Recover the amino acids of this structure.
């Protein structure tokens, strides 16, 4: 009853985690409640009637050489800085960490969720530590067709 009169969409995040069961869960809901709107985040399509896909591209990455005066305006760096400062207000981009921040968002391939996860841990893992960790993973693992970011976040 509450769902029948609700005008807000229901958010289902990371549905690829249950992709096999997603259709069995979502299709009956949509059939029973034709006005129901779902906002689903997933790396895979659900292949449901009426499904609309909105592929999201990674954030643009800073191009080398990295100039300190413009680096913070680059979208991937700006996201990292914003989220890092939420966790550690004294975190700032400066000459000692600028290259590490630029390298980090590059290793994370401009993926907003990966950037946010890295920034959320800025108190215990500064950018230089993340860079060393991701490069070690990339060098230690036979990555095949997966990227260092995919390998790291799958492990």
């Amino acid at each position: 009853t509450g769902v029948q009169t609700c005008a807000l969409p229901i958010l289902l995040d990371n549905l690829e985690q249950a992709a096999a069961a997603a259709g069995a869960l979502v299709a009956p809901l949509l059939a029973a409640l034709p006005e129901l709107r779902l906002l689903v985040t997933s790396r895979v399509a659900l292949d449901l009637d009426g499904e609309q896909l909105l592929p999201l591209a990674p954030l643009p990455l800073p191009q080398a050489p990295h100039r300190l005066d413009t680096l913070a305006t680059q979208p991937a760096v700006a996201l990292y800085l914003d989220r890092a400062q939420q966790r550690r207000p004294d975190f700032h981009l400066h000459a000692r960490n600028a290259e590490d921040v630029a390298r980090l968002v590059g290793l994370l391939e401009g993926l907003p969720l990966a950037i946010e996860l890295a920034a959320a841990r800025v108190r215990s893992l500064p950018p230089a530590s993340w860079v060393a960790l991701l490069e070690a993973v990339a060098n230690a693992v036979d990555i095949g067709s997966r990227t260092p970011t995919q390998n790291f976040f799958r492990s």
Q: What stands out?
A: The CA atoms of residues 77 and 122 lie 14 Å apart.
